[in-house]
Each structure stands twice: as C-alpha cells, then as structure tokens.
Write a structure and sequence with these properties.
Pathway: Amino-acid biosynthesis; L-methionine biosynthesis via de novo pathway; O-acetyl-L-homoserine from L-homoserine: step 1/1. The record marks 111 as: Important for acyl-CoA specificity. This protein folds into two domains: 1-31, no CATH class; 33-302, Class I glutamine amidotransferase (GATase) domain (Rossmann fold). The chain contains eleven helices and twelve strands. It has helices at residues 10-17, 25-29, 47-58, 82-88, 92-95, 121-134, 143-153, 199-205, 242-252, 278-294, 304-307; strands at 3-5, 22-24, 36-41, 65-70, 89-90, 100-105, 135-141, 158-172, 186-196, 209-214, 218-223, 229-232. A hairpin with a 3-residue loop joins β10 and β11 (218-223). α1 crosses α3 (47-58). The longest helix is centred in the C-terminal third of the chain and has 17 residues, at 278-294. 41% of the residues are buried.
C-alpha cells in the first residue's frame, strides 16, 4: 500500500522515479479503510531533502499512511521557500485539536546550543506536552531524541571532543524488541552530531530500554517498553550523499571538517559513497509503523485521551 501525499509535493516525482508507489489525496479518499495518520515535525534546514528521505522509508509498508508536515512558527527557516511551507506544511495551531497514530521529530543543527537557547524551544515543549494525549507513538531522531529525553526526564546532552560523522557499526542488545525484528546482530548507520547522551544518565533517570549501541557511537536506539517513545541518535533516514553534502557545506564555510568516517571509498571525497544502511533503515521504519503504531493504536484516535497516562513520564 502507498503513502498518501499532496501530489504537488516535490518529493512525489522523486519517489515515482524510484518506482515507489505514492497516492494522491483524491484517490485515497475512494478507499474504504482508515489510513495510519503520521505527523512529521521537520526541524532540518533542508526540508525538501528530509521529506524525501523519510518518505522513501515510510512508503515501504503494506499500510496506507496519511502524512502531514509541521513546522515551527517561532523560527524563520533560511533554506526553505515560504511558499513551500504555506503549501505543504501546517502549524501547531492547525493540528493541536487533531490526533495522530504516529509523530516523527527530526534532528536539527542546534545541538551545541543549550536547549533553552533554541528559539523554538518553548513551542517544541508545547508539542511534547500535546503529544502525550494526541499521539500514540513518537519517534525522535538525533537532536530530536536528545530534546525529548531532556524535556521528559532531565537527561542532558554532553559535548564530544570531536564531531561524530560517518558510517558506524552498532550492535543490537535487545533482540526481543519488536523494533529490532529482522535486524542482524550488528548494523551500519550514519551519525552526524557534536553531542551525546550517556548510558549512565539514561539508566539512572529513565526506564527506557537500550535496544542498540556501539563502541564509537555510544547509545544508538532507545524505546519505552510500550513503544510509545522511540529515540534514535543516528540518521538511518539519510540518503547516499547526505554526509557528502554536509562535508562540502562545512568545507565551503571553512570549518575544516574531518572526512566522514568509513564513508568515502579509499577516503577519497571524489568517489561515490556506497549505500550500506538502506536495509537497516527500511526494517527500522517499517517495524516502527507496524509494531509501535499500527498494532497498538486505537481505531478511534480520539480514544488517545484515555491512554495518555500510559506514558512513563506522566
């Protein structure tokens, strides 16, 4: 089954060229089923690229998924045209009375700032609070994961000695979690961050399960036992060239970046990077949609008001 999108979204043509089935709103309304409703809070500066990356993996499921995009009104994006936001995105005011099966909160290039110094922090806290009773399962990515842990549990991030950038191995440590079904004992994932959350803090301040971790990356994937909270510190959604574009961006800005680890063949930036994490990414996002969202969410989303207390931090 397809994902349902506004047919004018730029990602639609890209996905169709990749032979990924997408369905426009008009055709979807003719199907007598309730689609899974997923909201994506896109905090990344290159929003169109992130849209395509996430949609590529969310489409790889037998479920019909109805997607909405959300942006922060308290922040003025510099790399996305206002017309794009006006056409394809909603604000918190637009959706705050609605309910969703799933919510994805992306990363953001603000990790070296204290959380409270981020210009949209208060608005984001409103969304965290709202999601308790309006969303069944929330998937947090990279900085979004760090922000969620800080807001809910007081787990702060720590600055690392150097930027973690590259393709790294991590091991599955909780094989019986539905989110890890279909994974090998170890898998590769892109990481791109300056900060980390320590295992000691997570164990001391939360009851979250550690599902995967790695020697170089530290914690990789965490989740609550009921899968209503999922935290991934890597970027499984990244496409082949994302780290390359980030490296080139930092070179142009004269930041003197190190080469992404285990990424360019023979360490040569002129070479095309191999794609080695697509299977893990597809498995992860499909498992989240199936086991954390579809299998557990109530048919009547309004009933989420009755289940909000299931969150461990309430």
């Amino acid at each position: 089954m397809p994902i349902t999108l506004n047919k004018k979204l730029p990602a639609v043509d890209i996905l169709k060229n990749e032979n990924i089935f997408v369905m426009d709103d008009a055709r979807a309304r003719g199907q007598d089923i309730r689609p899974i409703k997923v909201l994506i809070l896109n905090l990344m500066p290159t929003k169109e690229a992130t849209e395509t990356q996430l949609l590529r993996y969310l489409s790889n499921t037998p479920l019909q998924v109805k997607l909405d995009f959300l942006y922060m009104t308290s922040h003025q994006p510099k790399n996305t045209k206002p017309e794009h936001l006006e056409t394809f995105y909603k604000t918190f005011a637009d959706i705050k009375a609605d309910y969703f099966d799933g919510l994805i909160i992306t990363g953001a290039p603000v990790e070296t700032l204290p959380f409270e110094a981020v210009d949209y922090w208060q608005e984001l806290c409103q969304i965290f609070d709202w999601a308790r009773r309006h969303v069944y399962s929330t998937l947090h990515l990279c900085w979004g994961a760090q922000a969620g842990l800080y807001y809910r549990y007081g787990v702060d991030k720590a600055l690392m000695d150097h930027k973690l950038s590259g393709i790294y191995s991590q091991d599955v440590v909780e094989h019986f979690s539905p989110l890890m079904r279909g994974f090998d004992d170890s898998f590769l994932s892109p990481h791109s961050r300056h900060t980390q959350v320590t295992e000691a803090d997570v164990r001391a301040k939360t009851n979250l399960q550690i599902l995967a971790k790695g020697e170089e990356v530290g914690l990789s994937i965490l989740a609550s036992r009921d899968l209503r909270e999922v935290y991934s510190f890597g970027h499984l959604e990244y496409d082949r060239d994302t780290l390359k574009r980030e490296y080139q961006r930092d070179m142009r800005a004269h930041k003197g970046p190190s080469l992404p680890v285990n990424y360019f063949p023979q360490g040569q930036p002129s070479q095309q990077p191999p794609l080695r994490w697509s299977l893990a990414a597809s498995t992860f996002f499909t498992n989240w949609l199936n086991y954390a969202v579809y299998q557990e969410t109530p048919y009547r989303l309004e009933d989420l008001e009755k289940t909000g207390s299931l969150y461990g931090y309430l």
